[in-house]
Structures are given as C-alpha cells and as structure tokens.
Amino acid sequence: AELTAYNETDACTTYLLWLRAANFQGLIPARELAQEVSAFRALIARRAAVRPEFARFQRAWTALDAPTPRDWSPPSRGFESLITVTSTLWMRCRFACAGGSFG
Q1: 22, 36, 79 from 32: Cα distances, Å
Q2: What is the phi-psi region of residue 99: left when phi exceeds 0, alpha when psi lies from -120 to 50, beta otherwise?
Q3: How large is the average pLDDT for residues 74-87?
Q4: What is the pLDDT of residue 35?
C-alpha cells in the first residue's frame, strides 16, 4: 500500500513537471496550462478527501506555491535549462511530500 501511494503521487508530480516542461518548450500555451493545472487541482482535492497520501500531496503542492527563494532565477531557454527547472521542481515536490517545508 505504501509503495502504491508513493507511485501514485510520484506520477502526479511527473505529470505536473511534464506540463511545465511542455509550457516551457512552447508546446502548451499558458492559458491551457492554467486550465489543466486547475482541473488537476480539483482532481487532487477530491482524492485528498478520502486518501491520506493525496492529502499530503495537496499540502505539499500548496507549499510549493509559496514564493521561490529570491536567489533563484530561472535559467535561459534550452535543454540544459529545462533539465535544471524540472530537476528543481521535482526535488522541491519530493521534499515537501516527505514532510519538509520551505520558508
């Protein structure tokens, strides 16, 4: 059960990173990204009401919406910068899901 919970929330993290990466590459317009993220938030909220692992994921996602530290700035476009952005987002989300906090 614990492995399943981890895999499900990891899939959610991967999907959100894919959305950002697709937007970053110009494959998904900002408006479409916002609509998809909103719909995904609603899905997570419904799941969080009945599954504790999704409640933790929802709290972690909310924590990630906090401002990014001032010394971090997004790199310029390109493959290396895409890797940097997605790696940073993935690490922050996994840390928050594990109970860490930013602040």
Answers
A1: 11, 6, 22
A2: left
A3: 54
A4: 92
CB 94 within 8 A of CB 61: no
Token code pair at residue 45: 């909220």
Q: Is the dihedral of CA 72, 22, 44, 95 positive or negative?
A: negative
Closest of 40, 39, 88, 34 to residue 64, by C-alpha:
88
Please count the CA atoms within 13 angstroms of the CA of 57 that sit on its side-chain side.
27
| Angle at the Cα of 12 from the Cα atoms of 72 and 41, rounded to 5 degrees | 85
**Coil, helix or strand for 61?**
helix
Element (H, E) at 93: helix 79-97
Cα(29)–Cα(34) distance, rounded to whole angstroms? 9
Residue with token string 């919970």: 5
